[in-house]
Description:
This protein has 289 residues and is of the alpha+beta class. The protein contains 8 helices and 15 strands. N-(5'-phosphopyridoxyl)-D-alanine binds next to helix 6 and strand 13. N-(5'-phosphopyridoxyl)-D-alanine binds at residues 33, 153, 184, 187-189, 208, 210-213, 246-249.
Amino acid sequence: MTIFLNGEFMPIAEAKISVLDRGFIFGDGVYEVIPVYSRRPFRLAGHLHRLQQSLDGIKLANLYSDNEWTAIINELIARNEAQDQYLYLHITRGVAKRDHAFPNPPVKPTVFMMSNPLSVPPADLLKSGVGAVTAQDNRWLRCDIKAISLLPNVLLRQMAVDAGCAETILIRPGSNNEPGFMTEGAASNIFVVKDGRLLAPPKDNLMLPGITYDVILEIAAANGIPHEVRKIAVTEVFAADELLLTSSTKEVLAITQLDGTPVGSGKPGAMFAKLHKLYQEYKQKVMRA
Ligand code: PDD
């Protein structure tokens, strides 16, 4: 596997970083996951835009322009074998003596990128759907930053795995007398379907603005699927006809069990079938363009 590290392409076995890297010491950095279909990065502009937002959020300068990123990304794709890949892009505040405050003067950020073969969910999973559990969203208040410090997400996702499930749906407690509300999954965005209507939580500081989330809402708008972006109460999650999960590596999946209880009919529903088909068509169209 060929990776990119600090301006150079090399075999992963030759890649070395310092133990003083602030990514290692503090989790002080941001990342992106970019799907590649037939050797072409999918929605690259959106990923590079979100990367810039994340860098701005942690006050770290971007070493490369979008054109430079595109060239590096295309080179990395070319140097790896799979037709469909997913790129992991990771930037930290660099190597410095351990001190919480930013190094002054600033040091060079560490820039790392690797590619892995992308396997989209297999047919049996599309047919059965996946299970999920719910848990309190105990993360910080800047979940819109795609930060590499993922310990809360790691612990929350493990709760799902321990319960034999695929994802943990996160619930924030409501303020005053308001009910709790859903933010997202530990590593995905979540949609609720009720009475033929697709409901999505609003992009704010409490969730990652998913690129797949954007695609799903664009598809809904373009195909006359009734949809609404608004705060979703926890009671609506439990009363859903369907629940959907989206991410760059999972695309769109139906959640058919929640905390051990069937969601709706307990089978992937009509909205899932429609959106999954439209998503595949959209992918094909974009890849042909
Ligand atoms: N995670 N929310 C969280 C917390 C995520 O980690 C992810 C993706 C998403 C979906 O975003 P997108 O559609 O842009 O992939 C939402 C990636 C895949 C990961 O960490 O591996």
